[in-house]
């Protein structure tokens, strides 16, 4: 059982804060970036992908972020609007900052990588005066994502959003979303991740991301239970540790753990797995499902997205997810 509370009187279900970017995914798969000639453009950035996923599943969503004043920024805004995501708190930079670009290389289903262009990006210029307490208090839940903590002023903006969420009993989900290229040093990264995580109700990350927070370098046998216990001594009521193709494990504050397997997929590329997992997991939990059911749905959504070309556009609708669950079996191997 999890103790997360969602106030039914709030008009919004989930508000995300953080980066809105562009993914340029290689059209020619099975070859290195050097030989890739064409790419397809999609909205990207982990919190953007997650909010798109939850909107597709029927949640009432909003986004707090900053866009570049360029064609890419306008493309992102119109995409959010098309999916019914409230963009009233998405502001526009006027200093000449640019939209972050992620070029993806799909050498094989197992060998995917991302080449980032993130100098002077607009998303990291979100500032505290662009965070509305009144907006945050209208939502049942807030999603934060680690990359927004990498630099000021975005870092302080996220901490202010966290403070407003705490003040108004808005449940906070933290998707760790650790992207090393955005950070200066491992020690600095861990400090800010820990400061944020101690204020969050539900923490979702891969084993490697939790290792980073615990300053465990080159450790292959870290203890999931000890990790969860560390966060239960703070604000957390639910800790989800993902193990890629081996599934995931969630811990609840009552001392129970819940294991999920995977839905075998015809993998096209692995990125986007985490974001699609998070969106269906959060949606399911907020519908009142058990933690185990939420994990099952997260795994199913991940399986759908890794078999498709994009991360955002590939997010399933509720009908697609239900149909997938009807016709596919989860395989549990033990995370
Ligand atoms: N090869 C796979 N086949 C089927 N499902 C998978 C596979 N890899 C991952 N998943 C599903 O996706 C979930 C999240 O995967 P993972 O641990 O790779 O997250 P992540 O590293 O955050 O993803 P991302 O690559 O998007 O950053 C897993 O718990 C699992 O349910
Ligand atoms: O911004 C990034 O780090 C890349 C994302 O845009 C991309 O969609 C992804 O990797 C999803 O997990």
Automatic annotation (TrEMBL):
Domain Carbohydrate kinase PfkB stretches: 13-317
Enzyme Commission number(s) of this protein: 2.7.1.92
Keyword tags: ATP-binding, Kinase, Nucleotide-binding, Transferase
PROSITE patterns: PFKB_KINASES_2 (PS00584)
Gene Ontology biological process: inositol catabolic process
Pathway(s) of this molecule: Polyol metabolism; myo-inositol degradation into acetyl-CoA; acetyl-CoA from myo-inositol: step 5/7
Any one Gene Ontology molecular-function term assigned to this protein's record: ATP binding
Superkingdom of the organism of origin: Bacteria
Keyword Transferase: yes
Reactions mediated catalytically: 5-dehydro-2-deoxy-D-gluconate + ATP = 6-phospho-5-dehydro-2-deoxy-D-gluconate + ADP + H(+)
Membership in a protein family: Belongs to the carbohydrate kinase PfkB family.
Described function: Catalyzes the phosphorylation of 5-dehydro-2-deoxy-D-gluconate (2-deoxy-5-keto-D-gluconate or DKG) to 6-phospho-5-dehydro-2-deoxy-D-gluconate (DKGP).
HAMAP family: IolC
Matching NCBIfam families: myo_inos_iolC_N
Protein name per UniProt: 5-dehydro-2-deoxygluconokinase
Organism: Paenibacillus typhae
Taxonomic placement: Bacteria, Bacillati, Bacillota, Bacilli, Bacillales
